[in-house]
Design the sequence.
């Protein structure tokens, strides 16, 4: 019987698969997703496993697909997700897939290389065009005749020396390099060169990095061969691109036209190349997801096959796996299906083995319980077949959160958000939104929904909606004659005290549901609420812990640890109940028997109400208080005797928790050893070999005793500290209420107290400010804080009473993650 | 046509919807002089000395704040329309 109450019963099975059918059977098992394979070759190196070649091929295909994916995303194409679940392809189809991917990859690489070359050429031609345009500008003023040499007119002819011949080079370089280049040129040529530069206005695309860079065109004029060599070397060293520039204007014009023509051609070719690439990628994008899933499934299957053993005849593979016993039928069906698909006639065999090893813990969860199970598993995976706290957590977690968060307004905000997530969950899952924070919120949508519903309830009980109270039933408090609320008194006192003794001030009938709305304008609201909230925190805490101890009883009964019931469960329960259960009893008794008004006699009126905490302390210290005035010392008759008995009983529980269990454990161990020895002798006399699996257990008495002592001390001290720890329920709800009130008084009130006309605009703005602060501080921050504290209360205070958490999680071979597109862990 | 991006317009839409609901309810509650809001009233110092004046100032303050809340709610209706239109614009582009 599977349920969330307890983890599933697991069986260790041996699987015999014929070699032809193994692949298909594992594929079908992966689709079902309920079998955890054990690695039967743990000592074998990854490179020596049987199917290492296939895994390598799958990795290659994966790499090719990822390259394709990157190129598709670069072109901003969408990868279509049809949601279909393709089956793992047959081994012989792997060759076809490989060929397809190889072809696609080669084609894409070729196209990319061509595009790069074309872009480089295009860049050079564009730069040349700019060079020609710039030199045109430089020499424009100088040319009187189009055919004369430029260099001739630059320097006036010196007498007797003849015309000076200047050489020049045209270069293009990045704008950032310009100053460095100029300075180096100046230094090396000792100022004997002349540079003119002009910046290219539009940025040019760099073919390699695909980003836009600004470039500068410049001309260097020099005289003589040596300078020419130097300049050329510097240009090469600074990685500028040199362009040959003809001297006459006519040649420049012709070159310019040629360049334009070639650029136009190049652009056409480039466009066609990009179109072709786009078409190839679009065709691939349609199948990409299916291919990914197929390849990932293949890889997973081969990893699993690597874990199997090959038997002696080399004809069948042996697997050891953990299967939930209730799912045997579906596994058998999957195996049959796999064998049919492989066309093999040999039926696979499942053989259940008996073992002493601890099976993995498998909790079958649905989308609702999965969130709560995650919370519990984060602390520790449950031991095999112990009671699963997640079941109770579904209710206690939202409830304890709500006690700390109680505000109906904030709960409504949370409710709207979580209800939207839950109602729209199918669309939201399909949208596959990324972002870790969103995934955390979406994964916990059911937890949030429950938390908000419970918080609404506690918000109504605390009568707190955005720090204001609702008056639905009519307050029980009135201003009557006994209040003496005359004008003179009000001016003198400033505050009015309503004494609940008088029935015209307090009607004697409490507000039917929740806090009376009068408290929101009472000055002593916090003092009143403190008393209530602290007491219910202790009561809730004690009941939660008693419940935890009861769950441990269920565990003891299930695992047949009957001595634990006498030595652990009973003393723990009696200790907790007789001390802290009695504390709760005193709280209830005081609530019932003490009150204000004429119905209560003078010893039970409000001025005689005793302090429960003082009684508790005196109980432990065995102190007797002195009578004061007309009040009784004790709440009820024989209180001192009863308290003494309870204290003695509680103290007696401590040695019962501490001492008997180690002795019993030692006796049980000795019995087991004797039985083992007897059975081994019998087997030897019968001539059979010795049984393999049993191993000698060491029993160190001192170790067990110390462990028991630690557990006892932990429990006894834990009782006190955990009970006090539950007071955080009070502390956080107080903090939340006060924050809410402060936010209203400091922010919203300013908006409300404005004079007319201008007031509305101020109110309009201040409301939005208040709303943002409410959501960010009170809902998000306080919500997170209350969540954390509730989690701590569950993990430490509740679970320490019964939870061992020493199991390991069930990790089946499942294709569900692959279909969802989650990141797969390397096996 | 597009004033703000998708996130901004969605936030404004939700905020406006909340504003309309909350300010609308508050306007009604202030109009019927609910004692829950008695600490939010603004009563000038002079009115504190005479009971009659105090009650008059009380009523006046209630009425003013009710009107303010109503008008602010109306302004949020306009904001809702504008940001709703922005959400449509963002969805289309």
Sequence:
């Amino acid at each position: 019987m599977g349920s969330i109450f307890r983890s599933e019963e697991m069986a260790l099975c041996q699987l015999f698969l014929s070699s032809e059918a193994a692949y298909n059977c594992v594929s079908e098992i992966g689709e079902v997703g309920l079998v955890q394979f054990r690695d039967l070759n743990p000592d074998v190196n990854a490179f020596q496993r049987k199917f290492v070649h296939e895994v390598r091929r799958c990795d290659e295909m994966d790499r090719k697909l990822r390259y394709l994916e990157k190129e598709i995303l670069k072109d901003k194409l969408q990868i279509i997700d049809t949601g279909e679940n393709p089956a793992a392809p047959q081994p012989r189809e792997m060759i076809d897939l490989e060929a397809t991917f190889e072809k696609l990859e080669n084609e894409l690489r070729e196209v990319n290389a061509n595009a790069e070359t074309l872009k480089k050429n295009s860049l050079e031609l564009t730069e040349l065009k700019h060079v020609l345009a710039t030199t045109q500008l430089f020499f424009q003023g100088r040319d009187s005749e189009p055919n004369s040499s430029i260099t001739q007119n630059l320097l006036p002819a010196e007498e007797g020396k003849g015309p000076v011949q200047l050489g020049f080079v045209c270069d293009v370089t990045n704008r950032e390099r310009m100053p460095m280049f100029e300075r180096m040129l100046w230094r090396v040529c000792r100022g004997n060169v002349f540079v003119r530069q002009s910046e290219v206005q539009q940025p040019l695309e760099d073919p390699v990095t695909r980003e836009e860079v600004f470039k500068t065109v410049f001309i260097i004029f020099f005289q003589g061969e040596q300078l020419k060599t130097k300049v050329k070397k510097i240009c090469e060293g600074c990685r500028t691109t040199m362009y040959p520039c003809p001297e006459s204007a006519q040649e420049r014009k012709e070159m310019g036209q040629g360049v334009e023509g070639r650029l136009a051609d190049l652009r056409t070719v480039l466009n066609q190349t990009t179109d072709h690439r786009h078409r190839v990628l679009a065709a691939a994008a349609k199948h990409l997801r299916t291919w990914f899933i197929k390849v990932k499934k293949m890889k997973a299957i081969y990893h699993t096959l690597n874990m199997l053993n090959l038997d002696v005849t080399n004809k069948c593979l042996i697997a050891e796996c953990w299967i939930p016993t209730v799912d045997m039928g579906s596994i058998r069906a999957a195996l049959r299906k796999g064998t049919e698909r492989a066309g093999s006639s040999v039926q696979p065999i499942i053989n259940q083995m008996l073992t002493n090893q601890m099976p993995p813990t498998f909790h079958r969860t649905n989308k609702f319980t999965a969130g709560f199970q995650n919370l519990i598993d984060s602390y520790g995976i449950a031991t095999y077949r112990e009671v699963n706290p997640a079941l109770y957590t579904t209710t206690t977690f939202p409830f304890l959160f709500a006690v700390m968060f109680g505000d109906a307004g904030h709960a409504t905000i949370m409710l709207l958000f979580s209800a939207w997530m839950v109602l729209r969950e199918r669309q939201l899952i399909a949208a596959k939104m990324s972002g870790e924070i969103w995934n955390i919120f979406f994964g916990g949508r059911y937890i949030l929904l429950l938390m908000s519903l419970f918080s609404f309830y506690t918000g109504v009980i605390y009568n707190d909606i955005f720090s204001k109270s609702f008056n639905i039933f009519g307050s029980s408090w009135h201003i009557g004659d006994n209040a003496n609320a005359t004008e003179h008194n009000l001016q003198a006192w400033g505050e009015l005290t309503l004494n609940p003794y008088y029935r015209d001030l307090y009607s004697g009938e409490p507000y039917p549901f929740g806090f009376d709305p009068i408290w929101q304008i009472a000055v002593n609201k916090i003092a009143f609420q403190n008393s209530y909230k602290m007491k219910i925190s202790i009561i809730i805490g004690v009941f939660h812990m008693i419940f935890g101890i009861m769950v441990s009883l269920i565990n003891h009964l299930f695992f047949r640890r009957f001595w634990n019931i006498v030595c652990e469960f009973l003393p723990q329960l009696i200790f907790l109940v007789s001390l802290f259960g009695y504390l709760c009893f005193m709280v209830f008794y005081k609530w019932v028997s003490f009150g204000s008004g004429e119905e209560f006699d003078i010893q039970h009126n409000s001025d005689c109400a005793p302090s429960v905490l003082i009684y508790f302390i005196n109980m432990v210290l065995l102190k007797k208080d002195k009578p004061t005035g007309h009040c009784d010392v004790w709440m009820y008759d024989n209180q001192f005797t009863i308290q003494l008995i309870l204290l003695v009983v509680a103290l007696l529980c401590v040695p019962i928790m501490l001492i008997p269990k180690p002795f019993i454990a030692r006796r049980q161990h000795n019995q087991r050893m004797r039985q083992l020895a007897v059975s081994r002798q019998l087997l030897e006399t019968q001539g059979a070999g010795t049984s393999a699996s049993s191993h000698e257990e060491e029993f160190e008495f001192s170790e067990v005793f110390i462990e028991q002592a630690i557990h006892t001390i932990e429990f006894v001290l834990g009782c006190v500290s955990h009970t006090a720890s539950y007071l955080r329920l009070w502390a956080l709800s107080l903090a939340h209420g006060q924050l809410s009130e402060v936010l209203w008084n400091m922010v919203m009130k300013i908006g409300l107290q404005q004079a007319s006309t201008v007031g509305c605009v101020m109110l309009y703005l201040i409301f939005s400010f208040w709303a943002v602060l409410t959501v960010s501080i009170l809902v998000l921050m306080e919500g997170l804080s209350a969540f954390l504290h509730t989690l701590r209360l569950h993990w430490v205070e509740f679970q320490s009473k019964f939870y061992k958490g020493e199991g390991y999680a069930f990790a089946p071979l499942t294709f569900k993650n692959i279909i969802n597109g989650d990141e797969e862990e390397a096996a | 046509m597009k004033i703000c991006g998708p996130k901004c317009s969605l936030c404004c839409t939700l905020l406006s919807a909340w504003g309309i609901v909350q300010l609308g309810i508050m306007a009604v509650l202030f109009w019927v002089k609910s004692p829950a809001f008695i600490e939010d009233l603004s009563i000038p110092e002079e009115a504190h000395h005479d009971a009659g004046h105090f009650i008059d100032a009380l009523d006046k303050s209630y009425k003013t704040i009710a009107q303010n809340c109503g008008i602010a709610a109306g302004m949020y209706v306009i904001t809702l329309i504008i940001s709703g239109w922005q959400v449509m614009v963002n969805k289309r582009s």
The CA atoms of residues 50 and 86 of chain B lie 53 Å apart. The first helix of chain B runs from residue 6 to 31.
